[in-house]
Specification:
With 338 residues, the protein is α+β, with helices and mostly antiparallel strands. The chain contains eleven helices and 20 strands. It has a five-stranded antiparallel sheet, with no helix packed on it. A four-stranded antiparallel sheet has the order 8-7-6-11, with helices on one face. Strands 13-14-18-17 form a four-stranded antiparallel sheet, with no helix packed on it. Helix 2 (46-54) crosses helix 6 (103-116) and helix 3 (60-74) runs antiparallel to helix 6 (103-116).
Length: 338
């Protein structure tokens, strides 16, 4: 599990930060280990969990991080309840005891633990582009619940449900939960979360000039990796979409690895005038290749953990950037002109 990549944080060699929040990787690792070592006997109700988390640190950020870590590593998404549409409200202790929940259960536990830890936390009901969403679909009814939490006097967004993993249909067509705890949905930049999460109450967007539901439905469902990698700037990109919804970036797949994209074409549709210049940085990538219609055109040059490619102008076809990872996987990272 590579959840130490804090996807919406500005990444340096030594620390992670978002707004006024800042902590080092070693601090994150310490909290993750402490959460992992919470006695099983203390994981049956909110009061006992609050007692254990209180031992881990005094700051509001540490308490929030520990709460998120425990929930995303301990609670599995209840796919049976989703299929049966049995999403009735359950208490935090009921969810903690069963360690299964749908989104409202995750958010309820997060709020209960945060409140017990002396933090101000609220539930957010809204529209989310989650399982089953297709681009361009208008979501008619609220279908998701997440949280906002106040840390050192400032409100932040958190989605522990999506931070725990995802749901998908397996080979037999059965809906299953894919446990993949991650930090992508911890302390979200409001200008990033708004591509997939739209609160019923506009104040919960935490955006100075809130978006309309009409614009939200037109926005592409952009994963936080677009912004955490530096490929797109959240402020600049939102300014573009407020003028026109025509802009569409390439498909960027979240491989759950440290990633910086310093140079790459920004639009999914390439023209014959576009030069194929890329600079991508990651310690988890062994090799990168550029392919067109599944034919390898060339391998990126590697200098340390920086990969560069400077090729001839694009001609035609499906262009993909393929990554060989350190864990012996070959996966698509970027995709143009699908």
């Amino acid at each position: 599990m590579r959840s130490l990549v804090l996807s919406i944080f500005c990444l340096t060699s030594f620390s992670y930060c978002f707004s006024q929040l800042k902590f080092t990787e070693s601090e994150v690792q310490k909290i993750a280990l402490l959460v992992k070592n919470i006695p099983k006997s203390a994981q049956h109700n909110s009061n006992s969990l609050v007692s254990e988390i209180n031992k881990m640190g005094k700051t509001e950020l540490i308490k929030t991080l520990a709460t998120y870590e425990w929930i995303t590593h301990s609670i599995a998404y209840d796919t049976k309840a989703l299929v049966k549409n049995d999403v009735q409200a359950r208490s935090a202790d009921e969810v903690i005891k069963s360690q299964t929940a749908v989104c409202s259960g995750y958010a309820t536990v997060f709020k209960a633990l945060a409140t017990g830890l002396g933090l101000e936390c609220e539930l957010i009901e809204g529209y989310a582009k989650g399982y089953g969403y297709e681009t361009g679909t208008i979501i008619e009814e609220p279908n998701h619940v997440w949280n906002k939490i106040k840390i050192d006097g400032i409100w932040y967004l958190i989605d522990a449900t999506w931070g725990a993993g995802s749901v998908s249909n397996d080979a037999s067509g059965k809906l299953s939960f894919n446990a993949a705890p991650n930090m992508d949905w911890f302390i979200l930049d409001p200008l990033v979360s708004i591509y997939s999460h739209f609160p019923v109450e506009s104040k919960n967007q935490l955006i100075e000039a809130p978006l309309t539901k009409v614009l939200f439905d037109k926005l592409p469902n952009l994963d936080p990796i677009y912004f955490s990698s530096g490929f797109l700037n959240s402020t600049e990109t939102m300014a573009v979409y407020k003028k026109s919804s025509a802009f569409l970036p390439p498909k960027l797949y979240n491989l759950n690895i440290p990633l910086k994209i310093n140079e790459a074409p920004k639009t999914i549709k390439l023209s014959k005038k576009d030069s194929l210049h890329f600079e991508i940085q990651s310690s988890e990538i062994k090799k990168l290749y550029l392919t067109i219609d599944d034919v390898v055109l060339g391998e990126f040059k590697k200098n340390g953990d920086v990969f560069t490619y400077h090729g001839a102008p694009y001609k035609s076809g499906l262009l993909e950037i393929i990554a060989d990872l350190q864990v012996e996987e070959r996966l698509v990272l970027l995709e143009y002109n699908p």
